[in-house]
Amino acid sequence: MAAYVSAVNNAMGAADFFRQGGVEFLRDAWLAAEFGQHRQSSSVRLVPERDQWPDFAARGGDVIERVECAEADISGRRRGDEYREAEKRNAGGGPIITVDPVEDWIARADQAPAALSAAIATKIGKRYAGRASLLVNLNISEFGILQTEIEAAMTPAVVPALPCFDRVWILWKARLYGPWTA
Length: 182
Known about the structure:
This protein has a 6-stranded mixed β-sheet, with helices on both faces. The protein has helices at about 1-10, 15-20, 25-40, 80-90, 100-125, 145-160, and strands spanning about 45, 55-60, 65-70, 135-140, 170, 175-180. The protein has 6 helices and 6 strands. By secondary structure, it is α/β, with parallel strands linked by helices. It has one domain. The longest helix has 24 residues, at about 100-125.
């Protein structure tokens, strides 16, 4: 699944991958692949869209874990615009990467607890029928400057979801945290 998503992303380009509607299933497929690799699942599969939820299922031995995905990011962030601007700079002969001051790392890190809480609250508010696990992709990078503080904020952010989900996982910087359980 990871190879498939990478191939599609490479063909589309990052700007379209994050701007184009109707490709959310690819982001879910990427999360399913990441989850499956971390959990050493024997297989992962997206749940058919007609079933509406959860997003994917991962098999480990005789156990199938049904998983709903969420993304925690900086409020109002538009990744597609970021990639589009990078493409414009590159096409004009400019650098793709721009200066990212340490102050911005700290500002992003400071938003991580609220981003986690907001993403989890949104999923709780949907009041899904049945049970599944929740996988939250924390998509905020701070280059390790406040790693310990963000890790400490995970449990308080997750606690409200425990009555609603079997397990809660957080994927952050290529590491899977959890599970948290009730």
